[in-house]
Specification:
With about 260 residues, this protein is mainly α. The chain contains 13 helices and 2 strands. It has a two-stranded antiparallel sheet with strand order 1-2. It starts with a helix and ends with a helix. The relative contact order is 0.10. About 0% of the residues have low confidence.
């Protein structure tokens, strides 16, 4: 599963698909972080998205000495995303096998590995692939604690506590990768305060993910970036809700869909 997912995404990676605007932005941020460990875009700190992915990409740049043109950096860093996507395929197999059977796990992993849209998405330098890796890892750690006969209240054993801490930490890493992933695990964990996990397990996972994320805004505030942090986060929320249309066909002075389709034809 791992090798098939990676291989399908590596084929002609250096000339497949257009370079997306966000890829050029993320690669510039990562290259900057590789040189001075600051997550900045232009002259300003970059708080629109969490920094973990950029630091991991900076580590890859430093480890392999990636340089050259902006496009070369994008293509080189795409390999990092492709390898992470292979891990996602393995985690999908493991999670589905845990809740169902190995046969369904193989089918789910294969659907992810072979889906053309997902291959295109994971072959670009987007943040969602890494975020999904942490989300699935968190669920894989917590799933053995769910099931019939688990009391709503009570003290979990040492193994359960360790799993709750590890699962919460993994969800925290997802939040430090892309904050919009929060709905995939915070809402389910809040539900699990009632069922099917013990309240102490769900509460421990929730507390751990919060503690994992908290140093990020604290450091931003301590370095004088509190106002910019809040402004960029609220800007991201407005875009998410559609209050501000900065991209797409609904943005101010955007061309019509018909004109773009005609031009592309």
């Amino acid at each position: 599963m791992l090798f098939r997912s990676v291989a399908l995404r590596l084929i002609h990676l250096d000339r497949a698909y257009d370079v997306f605007l966000d890829e050029t932005i993320y690669s510039r941020i990562a290259a900057g972080a590789a040189s001075d460990w600051r997550v900045v875009f232009g002259a300003y700190p970059f708080y629109l998205h969490s920094p973990l992915s950029f630091y991991l990409q900076a580590f890859v740049i430093d480890l392999f000495g990636i340089g050259g043109t902006a496009i070369h950096v994008v293509y080189s860093l795409r390999v990092f995303n492709v390898i992470v996507a292979g891990g996602v395929a393995v985690l999908i197999f493991a999670v589905v096998s845990d809740v169902s059977s190995r046969r369904w796990g193989l089918l789910a992993g294969a659907l992810f590995a072979f889906d053309p849209f997902i291959i295109s998405f994971d072959s670009r330098l987007f943040l969602e692939t890494l975020a999904m890796f942490w989300v699935l890892l968190g669920y894989l750690l917590l799933l053995p604690l769910a099931g019939e006969g688990v009391a709503v209240a009570g003290s979990p054993g040492r193994s359960a506590r360790l799993r709750a801490l590890a699962g919460g930490f993994s969800f925290g890493l997802a939040l430090l990768t892309k904050e919009t992933s929060a709905a995939l695990y915070i809402l389910p964990l809040l539900w699990c305060l009632w069922r099917p996990l013990r309240r102490s397990v769900a509460g421990t996972a929730l507390a751990t993910l919060i503690v994992t994320y908290l140093p990020y805004p604290i450091i931003a505030a301590a370095t004088g970036g509190a106002s910019e942090f809040v402004n960029q986060k609220f800007s991201g929320i407005e875009r998410l809700l559609g209050i501000v249309q900065a991209t797409g066909f609904n943005r101010p002075s955007a061309p019509s869909l018909l004109s773009r389709v005609s031009a592309d034809l």
